[in-house]
User: Fold Lipoprotein LpqN from Mycolicibacterium chitae.
Amino acid sequence: MSRRLCAAAAAALLACTACGTPAPDYQSIWSSSATTAPPTSSEPPVPFSQYLAGVGVQGEAVALADLTDISVTLVRPDGWSTYRNENLAPTTEGIAKNNTYPTATVLVFRLEGGFDVPAAIAHANADALLSPGFTKLNESFDDFDGFPSAMIEGSYFGPSEPGSEPPRLHSYSRIVIPVTPEPEFQRYLVQLTITGLADRAVADSADIEEIINGFEVTVA
Assistant:
């Protein structure tokens, strides 16, 4: 797998480091699909980028504006603007409210290499599950827009300045693996990640729901 895919996927999927106390359940606010029980396995989770690399998949990051055979829709609520962060890959599409939390980002990778898609989707939420003390609120492996998909919500402690208490954050992540029709038969990996302050979940819920409900992945 390309270094760009590993680094960006790790940064985006490392959405959850977690709180030591029980977190409020925000799934009634942020969930957009029915919860499906995840696949069961006695083996520890494998980071998603590591899994893809292990089955011979390589990925090239693609900006939303450069997509020609699929279309990805990221809704921008009123008051949200383009978000830039030095830790994000240049091809990342990011928006934020007042240039701070909540934020929403979309990553797209053009995938090369044949692989078992259902097996891969079973590993898609692994990075979040492997985060220290991750508290899972909701998880689903239902298809999204007709494509294989995985969704996970969780709470965690965000970064903080030395000596200060880290903020509790809440994250929603959805990974979709669309494919174009034959003869091209091109697979992509699309990830939407939304992160906000947990204590503002109710206040920000309308915007968050607008982004989640407006997110679309279609064949162009």
